[in-house]
Structures are given as C-alpha cells and as structure tokens.
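Thread: quick sanity check before group meeting

JM: Hey all, I'm pulling together slides for Thursday and realized we never actually wrote out the predicted structure for the chain we discussed last week. Dropping the sequence here so it's in one place. If anyone has concerns about the input, flag it before I start.
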Amino acid sequence: MDTVQWIILVAIVALAGLGGTIGLVAGRGRRQPPLPPGGGGTTTLERPAPEEGDGDRSGDVDVLDAPTATPGTPATTGAPTAEPELLEPEAPAVERPEAPQGRLTRLRARLARSNNALGRGLLELLSRDKLDADTWDEIEETLLLADLGVDPTTELIDRLRERVAVLGVRDTEHVRELLREELKALVDPGEGMDRSLAIDHAPGRPAVVMVVGVNGTGKTTTVGKLARVLVAEDKDVVLGAADTFRAAAADQLATWGDRVGVPTIRSDRDGADPASVAFDAVKAGIESEADVVLIDTAGRLQNKVGLMDELGKVKRVVEKHGPVDEILLVLDATTGQNGMQQAKVFSEVVNITGIVLTKLDGTAKGGIVVAVQRALGVPVKLIGLGEGPDDLAPFDPDAFVDALLT
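JM (edit): ok, ran it. Output follows.
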C-alpha cells in the first residue's frame, strides 16, 4: 500500500469518528419533558398551535413511553390514579339565640346608661329648693328636647306642679317617685295597649307579620333580629325578602336566616314584584306548616306616592292567603319629630298595629315613645338598643321608666 492509499484510509476513519460524535451530542440535546406527578401512564405532548403557513399539523404529537421502574421503586402502570375524595363543605353552625327574658336586664342597664339625661335632668330641676317660673320653664324645655311632644309635656308639667305644690316635697326620693308615676302614666296609658306580638297562627296557616319603614331605620336588620326572638321561643319561621329594590336586602336577610336555620323566600332577580315574593313566602309558610312568616318590605320614602301605593298592594296580595296578623312600623328613635311624620303617613297606607323603636341607645330622646304612641294610638312593642344580634327585646314600660330615672 503506497502513501496515497494510507492517507485516504486515515481520512475515512477520522470522518466516521466525527459523525458518531455529532450524533451523540445531538441525541443528548433532546431532553424528555418531566412526567406528571405519580409517574404512571403515558404523557401526551401537544405541539403549539400552528402559525399561518405551517399547514395542517393536527395529530402531530409525540408519545413518549414511561420509563421503566428502577429496582427499589414502585412500578408504574398505565392505570389512571384514583380520584381524590371530595369532602362536603361543612354546613354553618346554627346559632341558638338568647331568650328575650334573659336579655332584658342587659338592655335595661344599657338604656340607663344612654338615656338617663332626661330623668336626671328632671330630677335635678324638681329637687331645687325653689321651683319658680324659670325652673318650670327649664323642665318644659327638657321634656320637649326629649321629643315628648307638646301635648304630653303640657300634661306632665301641669300634673307635676299640682302634686308638688300639694305635697310640698323637695327631697330626691319623693320627687323621683312622683316623676316615675307621671311618666309611667304617659308611657303606658293602659288604654288597650296590648304589647304582645300577634303570632298565634290560625289552623292551616301561619301568622303573618309585615315589617314596614323608611330606608335607614334598620328595618331589614330588625326582621332578622325578630326572627331570632321567635326562634328562641321555639317558633318555626319563614322569611320573605320582599324588599326587591335594594340589591343587598335579600342577601342580608338570608344571612340572618341562615344563622338560626330559618329559610328565606326571595326572587332570583332584582326589581321583581314585591307582592309576588310576599305571596310566595306565605305560600311556603303554609306548605311547611310554619308558625310565623316575617315579610321584609322595601324602605319606603313617605313622599313617594307610587311606592306607598305599592306597599298597600303587597298587603292586599298577601291577604289572599288570609289576614295579615301584625304590621310593625320600624322607626329610628333619633329622628324625633321627623319620625312622627313618617309614622302618620304609613298609618294612612296600612293598618299599623305596633311600633319598633331602633337606635334608642345613645340618645336622650326617650320621649319619642310617648309621642308616637299618642299620635298613632298603637303601642311600642319592641325596642332596639344596640347592634348585637340579640339587642332587640319586648318593650317593658316599667323597665323603661326605671331606666330613665336611674
């Protein structure tokens, strides 16, 4: 073999070795994607969607075999892994509300702290050594500022002046007793003031309670709290969310109901016919043999004639099932004489049977109790003295007057 042949042979061997090296490097550059958690089965890799001009690449996928299990590790199979067990969400715990009788002491103490400006002011004035015309003028002003009203104030002043003059009392204890007797006579005149709720249902249907009032008085919250009062008395309650104009009203009422295990009948859309929702709520109460149906109505502005007429329509539609047993008017105790005007307009549209005074804490205007009862001829049946879920209680005239004079 000559020199030329040796050169050709060496070149061929060199080229063969170089080609093998290139192939090895290229093979190492193609990395397999990671396997899904669990390792088993096959992994299908879909290519990115073809861009324009790439042509049809449907079905252009790579199927990679799963690696063989190594000694000491569990073998993987193509069988699908077991579905994880889905846990049902826990139902919210149903609360057991505090009995109304148990909360009266707490509410009385809160009322004494917040409303005693009226009673203490009167006691201080009446205990002076000299009750001249100026002092009586101050007493009158104190009563008027407490929203007692002009006529009740005049009556109270006249009777106190007469009794103080006849008895000649000045010490605080005697004055307190006189004032207590006269205030009690105004707060609880005893002229058919039945403060119990009409919730004794007739055979075959539940008692129906409509709750009305102006926006901002705490009407929907009052319905929720009243449901708690009734549940604490072992009543089966159904709530009717007939306030369809305020977007969050139905959700708010349903939340109150859920907390004590009470169903809420509501529309699936905003702006639905309130009368229809109220009708369905009573129907549901009949079918479920409930004791009481509480109907929350839209917050009516007393100067909106159309809305007030619709409130009357709700009452008429509900009465197709039977009479409405109770219509409660919710008033904000801090609104004073403005609340009195609201009360009069509502009483002209529906037959108000009872009053709920909210926000009675934090104000010295306890005289609104006397004024509103005098104006409407209906009793205050419930009072709210705070934002807690059980801060609603039956109105007790004796406890109210005692708290004012504490």
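AS: nice. The first helix runs from residue 3 to 29. The two ends are 132 Å apart (CA to CA).
JM: adding both to the slides.
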